[in-house]
Amino acid sequence: MKRKIVLMVLCLAFALVGCGMEQTEAPDAGFVQVVNPLVTVESVEEMEEKLGYSVPVLDKDVESYIVLVIDGVCESGRIRYADGSDFNIKKGSGDISGIYGGVLDAEENIHGVTVSFCVYEELRYAIWEKDGFTYSLTGGAALPTDVAALLSN
Description:
Helices cover 24% and strands 38% of the residues. By secondary structure, the chain is of the alpha+beta class. An eight-stranded antiparallel sheet has the order 1-2-3-4-8-7-6-5, covered by helices on one side.
């Protein structure tokens, strides 16, 4: 019986000592910040410097100039105009509008370039390729006129 009491006292002592010890927690990894791939720049000149090529612009008020950076490489540019239209440019080919589910509404030859005019719900946009670059222009009441202006730059 004495043994049982000693054993219970020892267990209680170990439990109390264990409760008084500092608990070690896993180190706090801190806030993990995801890099924003969209970099806003101040001008078309700064955009061109980052992209390494010329960017045509429309003669209308600009809301912002944006460069898409992927794995440290400036991949494409976007000019957002005050009227709500977006112009995208990227080296390569393919649809860079970012609009999925649109349907071809019409094709026009503008300054020797085939431009596809597409519609998604109420949104009209144009996509085209020229000289190793792909382009898109979204929205705006003067879509065909704006495309022609970009192609003449």
